[in-house]
């Protein structure tokens, strides 16, 4: 049997079973099979743009599935899906290709639009079948709008006191700076950004402390004590290591912060900034003074802002019991609530 007949037979077999991302329990997504020489039923590949190459994760709300896409420089695309309330082991995996700015899985085509550090996909002829993807750290991570995906808060365990706090370091394998915050209740937040930059375009994912490990999505990291800091090694990948030092003056109270720390913000964070909160769909203004005082104004539907005074503390903004990570973003800033990656606001300087 020649190559064309092999590809045609595989294509017919896949289409007969069904290729939808969701559907009834009887319909399974079938992977495109390789023959003996490595050909797949998607024989046409185009090189995707650099921003679309890598590993991305998101949530398909139509079918209530977690989705992972792995896109190679050659244009090969691998999609893995599993139920949102399940652990990070894929139920279905299918291979496809990048073609004419779209991702193609046999008979299904998805338009791709760049969005921040990730992208969104919309199925051709079905606008309801859409997924927002974020680039992951080393192939792992949580899921947008999911409170951190698998491990984003469920099944958390109390860590030892030496593992509670804010820690910073570098991951040499992926050339990233890393910040990990671990609370006394076992909730964890990991933020990564390209080394040598001033926290521009950071990626954030929520996770948990469980069985002596840090768990982010489907990825588990063994944790050992290293002086006053931590040393993490990814399970099944010894090259994925991060040496983290404690940030701040101590460890472990409240929300896992590292003590009182520095109360003066850097110059790029001083000023008046306005933006919109994605989670609550509210307009927000922050006024950050040189001495660390922070005033927040939130506009409701009646156009009358509610105001609240907070403070700058150890590279975070604090309002009452709530703490927010803050990052430089172009000429503005981005804030994200600790323990809730969906509560974020992009703000531009006024």
Which key terms come to mind for this protein?
3 domains; globular; mainly beta; Lipocalin; 350 residues; 8-stranded antiparallel barrel
Oligomer: single chain
Average predicted local confidence, pLDDT: 75
Name the poorly predicted regions.
Answer: 1-43, 138-153, 249-261
> In angstroms, what separates the terminal alpha carbons?
67 Å
Amount of beta strand: over 45%
Q: What is the CATH architecture descriptor of the largest domain?
A: Beta Barrel
Number of domain units: 3
The major beta sheet can be summarized as:
8 strands, antiparallel, barrel
Round the Cα radius of gyration to an integer and report it. Answer: 22 Å
What does this structure look like?
By secondary structure, this protein is mostly beta strands. It has three domains: 3-135, Lipocalin, CATH 2.40.128; 161-246, Lipocalin; 267-349, Lipocalin, CATH 2.40.128. It contains one helix and 24 strands. The protein has one helix at 3-17; strands at 54-60, 65-71, 76-83, 92-99, 102-105, 108-115, 118-123, 126-135, 165-171, 176-182, 187-194, 203-210, 213-216, 219-226, 229-234, 237-246, 271-277, 282-288, 293-299, 305-313, 316-319, 322-329, 332-337, 344-349. The strands form three sheets. Strands 1-2-3-4-5-6-7-8 form an eight-stranded antiparallel beta barrel. The protein has an eight-stranded antiparallel beta barrel with strand order 9-10-11-12-13-14-15-16. A hairpin with a 4-residue loop joins strand 2 and strand 3 (76-83). It is globular, with a radius of gyration of 22 Å. The termini are far apart.
């Amino acid at each position: 049997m020649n190559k064309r007949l092999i590809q045609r037979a595989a294509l017919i077999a896949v289409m007969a079973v069904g290729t939808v991302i969701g559907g009834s329990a009887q319909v399974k997504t079938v992977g495109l099979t390789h023959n003996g020489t490595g050909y797949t039923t998607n024989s046409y590949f185009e090189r995707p743009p650099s921003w679309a190459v890598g590993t991305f994760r998101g949530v398909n709300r139509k079918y209530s599935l977690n989705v992972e896409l792995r896109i190679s420089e050659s244009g090969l695309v691998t999609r893995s899906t599993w139920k949102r309330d399940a652990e990070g082991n894929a139920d279905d995996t299918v291979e496809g290709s990048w073609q004419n700015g779209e991702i193609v899985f046999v008979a299904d085509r998805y338009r791709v639009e760049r969005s921040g550090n990730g992208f969104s996909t919309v199925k051709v002829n079905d606008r309801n079948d859409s997924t927002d993807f974020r680039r992951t750290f080393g192939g792992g991570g949580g899921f947008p709008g999911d409170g951190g995906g698998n491990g984003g808060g469920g099944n958390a365990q109390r860590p030892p006191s030496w593992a509670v706090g804010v820690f910073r370091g570098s991951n040499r394998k992926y050339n990233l700076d890393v910040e990990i915050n671990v609370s006394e209740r076992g909730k964890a937040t990991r933020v990564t950004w390209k080394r040598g930059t001033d926290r521009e375009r950071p990626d954030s994912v929520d996770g948990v402390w469980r069985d002596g490990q840090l768990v982010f999505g489907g990825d588990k990291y063994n944790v050992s004590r290293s002086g006053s800091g931590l040393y993490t090694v990814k399970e099944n990948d010894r090259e994925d290591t991060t040496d983290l030092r404690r940030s701040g003056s101590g460890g472990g109270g409240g929300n896992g912060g590292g003590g009182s720390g520095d109360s003066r913000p850097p110059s790029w964070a001083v000023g008046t900034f306005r933006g919109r909160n994605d989670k609550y769909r509210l307009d927000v203004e922050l006024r950050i003074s040189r001495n660390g005082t922070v005033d927040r104004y939130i506009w409701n539907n009646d156009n009358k802002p509610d105001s609240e005074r907070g403070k700058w503390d150890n590279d975070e903004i604090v309002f009452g019991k709530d703490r927010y990570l803050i990052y430089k973003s172009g000429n503005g800033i981005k804030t994200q609530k600790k323990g809730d990656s969906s509560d974020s606001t992009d703000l531009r300087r006024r």
